[in-house]
Write a structure and sequence with these properties.
Elements: E1 4-8, E2 12-16, H1 23-39, E3 44-49, E4 53-58, H2 65-77, E5 86-95, H3 103-109, H4 114-121, E6 125-131, E7 138-141, E8 156-159, E9 163-167, E10 170-173, E11 178-180, E12 183-187, E13 208-214, H5 216-223, E14 231-235
Parallel strand pairs: 5-13
Antiparallel strand pairs: 1-2, 2-4, 3-4, 5-12, 5-14, 6-7, 6-13, 7-10, 8-11, 9-10, 9-12
């Protein structure tokens, strides 16, 4: 699979792996991000993995762009190592009602029962393709085609943190209260962004998430725990 390295001004380079949203492409992105991080290249100040590309930020007073490109080309030429273990999260979600005010509309739109939507949405594992838009906001791939739904024509000015939503071919977990044009189907009591936490972002690119339906009472009980973290396991 070919890739392209391009500059972004004088402080970053962009390694582009293709034009499609694909798990294999995203795996190459996250694998390269790990290799760059492990290489500890002096002058590299940040890594931003996305669906199909990796942005490498650097301090131009410490490393020249030409030298950084040499490092990246060497790392790209290395054979792909065995895939690292993947964290699989069991993320509780209260669907519908006040927690997912668009669930009934979305079900009607697709000529489904709300329970069918919940069943389809919670039946698969979703890959975290990237974190972006807001701190800790997780973009997930793997949504059943039967649930693909266009974004709303009029975005809401406020949606709560933890909202689980559908927009187009994607589903996502909101990390902070913010405007949104996505269709809101549920909410998790897990906090995917806490600035004071040792690791502020709960998820990272390459993780997988399985949604576990819960009722409102369970949601309230978990949300009342200030340090609540959902369960996760490793998959080799």
């Amino acid at each position: 699979m070919s890739c392209r390295i391009a500059p972004i001004a004088d402080h970053a380079v962009y390694i582009d792996f293709g034009e499609v949203i694909d798990a294999a492409v995203n795996q190459r992105v996250t694998a390269l991000a790990k290799r760059v991080a492990d290489a500890r290249i002096d002058g590299v100040t940040g890594l931003i993995p996305t669906y199909r590309a990796l942005t490498v930020a650097y301090d131009c007073t410490r490393i020249r762009q030409s030298r950084l490109r040499e490092h990246l080309e060497r790392l790209l030429a290395e054979p792909d190592a065995a895939a690292d273990p993947v964290r699989i999260w069991q993320l509780p979600v209260a669907y519908g009602g006040d927690h997912g005010i668009d669930l009934q509309w979305l079900a009607d739109h697709h000529q489904l029962d709300p329970q069918d939507v919940i069943g389809l949405h919670s039946a698969v594992s979703y890959r975290v393709y990237m974190i972006g838009f807001m701190p800790g906001f997780a973009y997930l791939g793997g949504l059943d085609e039967r649930l693909h739904t266009s974004r709303r024509e009029s975005p809401r000015l406020k949606t709560p943190a933890g909202t689980v939503s559908i927009g187009g071919m994607q589903t996502a977990v909101a990390s902070v209260e913010a405007p949104s044009g996505w269709n809101l189907i549920g909410r998790t009591p897990a906090r995917s962004f806490v600035a004071s936490r040792e690791e502020p972002f709960l998820f990272r690119a390459g993780d997988e998430i399985r949604f576990v339906p819960i009722d409102s009472d369970e949601f309230d009980a978990l949300a009342a725990q200030p340090d609540y973290l959902p369960q996760w396991t490793w998959r080799a």
